[in-house]
Specification:
mainly alpha, about 45% helix
Length: about 100
């Protein structure tokens, strides 16, 4: 087994994949929002969904799909012990 295969992290589903899965299961984010108490602002789940730190929205979507949130967004739920510590390994950090 190669080194990269050992340290590879599963990729998060893209936003389009998540939206397609929700639609494929017969709903959309507005309907999920209303069903979960966001009657005043059904678009709220869209807003929250597009933020990375949105565990409530992620749980609502994952529960609807019958999956754990960790399966849809593995990078958001990895333990602190397994997170990258080197700046070269973090895609959002520029390395000179």
């Amino acid at each position: 087994m190669s080194k990269s295969a050992i340290h590879s992290v599963p990729k998060d589903w893209s936003q389009n994949e998540v939206l397609f899965a929700v639609r494929n299961h017969g709903s959309n984010l507005a309907q999920l929002a209303i069903a979960n108490g966001y009657e005043q602002n059904p678009r709220a789940l869209y807003v929250v969904f597009y933020r990375k730190n949105a565990p409530t929205a992620q749980k609502i979507i994952a529960d609807f799909l019958g999956l754990p949130p960790e399966e849809i967004w593995p990078s958001r739920y990895q333990s602190s012990a397994s997170k990258c510590t080197s700046p070269a390994q973090r895609p959002h950090v520029r390395v000179a």
